[in-house]
Amino acid sequence: MPIPQEENTDALSSLELGVIGNGSVAALIDGSGRIVWCCLPRFDGDASFCALLSPRREGGDWTIELEDLERSEQHYMPNTAVLVTRLYDRSGAGVEIVDYMPRFRSRGRFYHPVLLARRVRPIGGSPRIRVLLRPLCRYGAEAPQTTSGSNHIRFLLDGVVQRLTCDVASIMVERGLPFFLEKPAHFVFGPDETLTHSPADFIHHTLERTLGYWREWVRNLSVPYEWQEPIIRAAITLKLCQYEATGAIVAALTTSIPESPHSERNWDYRYCWLRDAAFTVRALNRLGATRSMEEYIRYVFNLVASDGDNEIGPVFGITFEHELPETQVDSLAGYRGMGPVRVGNDAWRQRQNDVYGSVVLAAAQVFFDRRLEHPGDELTFRRLERMGEMALRVAETPDAGLWEYRGRAAVHTYSAAMCWAACDRLAHIATELGLDERARYWHDEAVALHARIEARAWNNRLGTFVDAYDGEHLDASLLLLADIGFIPAMDPRFIATVDAIGQALGRGDYLFRYIAPDDFGAPETSFNICTFWYIEALAATGRKERARAMFEHMLSQRNPLGLLSEDIAPANGEHWGNFPQTYSMVGLIQAAMRLSRRWEDAL
Predict the structure, then answer these.
(1) Per residue, what are the HEC states of 263-297?
(2) Which residues touch 170 (CB under 8 Å, ≥6 apart)?
(3) What stretch of H or E contains 444?
(4) Integer CA distances (angstroms), 136 to 131, 144, 174, 188, in order
(5) Using CA of residue 194, residue 198, residue 199, residue 201, what is the dihedral sign?
(6) What are the E-state strand segments in 161-309?
(7) H helix or E strand, kind and range, residue 599
(8) Residue range 196-220: average pLDDT?
(9) Phi then psi dihedrals of residue 420, to 5 deg
(10) Share of the chain above pLDDT 70, in %
(11) Burial class of residue 377 in the structure, from the number of CB atoms within 10 Å of its CB (0-12 exposed, 13-18 middle, 19+ buried)
(12) What beta strand segments (E) does 379-419 contain?
């Protein structure tokens, strides 16, 4: 059903946004059909459409403006990444905007150009519209140079030239002139090439094939009985966050949406964190979408091929950049004017020791899944062993942890446990491959490391596991100890830890990642994936009804199109943090699959 929007929804004041994409590029669209965020020519490129972050000059958007707008409604075409927005004026006249980015198989490969396509058609009365196409350059600092013909406009953007081809006279778009929409209008904003078909024919052809692609992709998902629609939307969103050219998966599509108001916790998430990407891969694997795993493994092996014995950083560019220098952009005031806006992320300088286990866990299925065209072999295993050797080297050395503390380091329990997981899974893989000597080696190393971690990460006085060796604090990552197999879920020590975390970090139906002040003070918002981890831990330890109630609440907190950002303010349910957040969509999928009734029990 279409989702009604409030009158004149302002994308700058909320994250009630939809996402479209195709594996090369993605865009965010507000409730009135305005494109407010899109980086070109790839996820981490210049924000040509940057209205979301308040450019100090006019523009940064692509608006289909309906005169006398009264209301709007919006929905995705079922099981696709195609977004439909309907706008109605005060007299009842209306327009329908269909937004998508082409993606389908053609000539033995995927067709997914850097291209946005829009179809606008009247749906009653005599609607009068303006088309305002106003990309900017250098993160909103300047307007692009343009040239035009009778039905096209070329935009010389930062590092890429894009061409708008349409069946509306170009002068109407160039000057933003209003006109009555008497028949469908078609807009193709893509590579600077002559369109070989009319815009109408191009959109008719590519839209149908794109719809077919997504519906076929969804049809092949192994979804549980309950909560199918939220799971499908989450899975599509995760797919849109993978840059297909290399296999990298970004943590989110945006930069600098603050984790809480005026906190300056504003970070650029348009890069590939090995940990976040591994979570995404594991979630999609559980749904049977294993192609993302194969592409991600390709990315990782290409990434580390030339690194020798050097340690591996936690985050990289989507085309293998090892350094991501962090700078501030003055030409954008920030989300709701809450700067700073940052480009790049200095987390690349950090040591985060859990990354080795993250990579091994993400890759493990390739050795056991007989559906794959190219299952893991001994060569793949030998490459993966490098992750294990690095894990053994750093397991009990201080790091910034998965929360990326910038002002302190410790031997974090989760990091050490993930290094153990790398060794443990390598033992299983070696056994599967018949490599008995390597299986014994990794098994013995895993057992020894496990014992050392247990001895240092358990606090007898508190009666719980703690966040770091010989520590005194809790953090939400301890909820994952059972999930990775470090400890059985029904072990009294894990149950005690789960209960203590719920009491210390819980705020109603939400969970904070930690509450101790960090480099920016005490956290103010809950971290969505931590809430989902807590839901899973409750279910695993026998509190399934409480888990289901919390999960249903989290579903109700999604935005009108079923998406989640990174954080939620417990006081009012407001979304904060970068968007859409892969972590959050992963958490939704994994919790739903743990809680859902089985098909055989439901029917």
Answers:
(1) CCCCCECCCEEHHHHHHHHHHHHHCCCCHHHHHHH
(2) 148, 149, 150, 151, 152, 153, 164
(3) helix 436-457
(4) 16, 6, 14, 18
(5) negative
(6) 161-166, 179-180, 185-191, 242-243, 248-249, 272-273
(7) helix 599-602
(8) 97
(9) -60, -45
(10) 97
(11) exposed
(12) none
Report CA torsion sign: 485, 351, 296, 211.
positive
Single-letter amino acid, residue 577? G
Q: Are 184 and 119 within 8 A, CB to CB? A: yes
Please say if the pLDDT value at position 147 is more than 70: yes
Residue 12 pLDDT: 54
For residue 598, the 8-state DSSP code is: P
* E strand or H helix at 329: strand 327-329
pLDDT tens figures, 545-593: 999 999 999 999 999 999 999 999 999 999 999 999 999 999 999 999 9
Largest Cα separation within the chain, whole Å, is 78
Phi, psi for 343 (deg, rounded to 5): -120, 130
pLDDT tens column, 410-457: 999 999 999 999 999 999 999 999 999 999 999 999 999 999 999 999
Average pLDDT over residues 537-543: 98
Q: Where are the extended beta strands (E) located within 135-283? A: 145-148, 152-156, 161-166, 179-180, 185-191, 242-243, 248-249, 272-273
Residues forming beta bridges with residue 122, ordered by sequence position: 95
For 116, 451, 515, the CA distances from 205, given in Å and listed in that order, are 14, 60, 53
574 in Cβ contact with 567 (< 8 Å): no
pLDDT (tens digit per residue) in 325-350: 999 999 999 999 999 999 999 999 99
| Residue 32 backbone phi and psi in degrees, to 5 | -105, 15
C-alpha span between 231 and 283 (Å, rounded): 10
DSSP 8-state symbol, 364: G
Tokens of 314: 């936690």
Looking at residue 482, what DSSP letter applies? T
Long-range contacts of 304-310 (CB under 8 A, 24+ apart): 304/386
For residue 331, give the 3-state DSSP assignment.
Answer: coil
Could you identify the residue written with the tokens 């369109």? 195
Would strands 185-191 and 161-166 be described as parallel, antiparallel, or unpaired? antiparallel
Q: How crowded is the C-beta side of 217, counted as CA atoms within 13 Å?
A: 27
Beta-carbon contacts of residue 128 (< 8 Å; ≥ 6 apart): 66, 67, 89, 178, 179, 180, 181
Asked whether 236 and 82 are in contact (CB, 8 A), the reply is no
The secondary structure of the chain in percent helix, strand, coil, rounded to multiples of 5, reads 35, 20, 40
Place of tokens 């075409």: 77
Contacts of 493 (CB under 8 A, 6+ apart): 458, 464, 465, 487
Pairwise CA distance, residues 457 & 470, whole Å: 6
pLDDT over 90 at 536, yes or no: yes
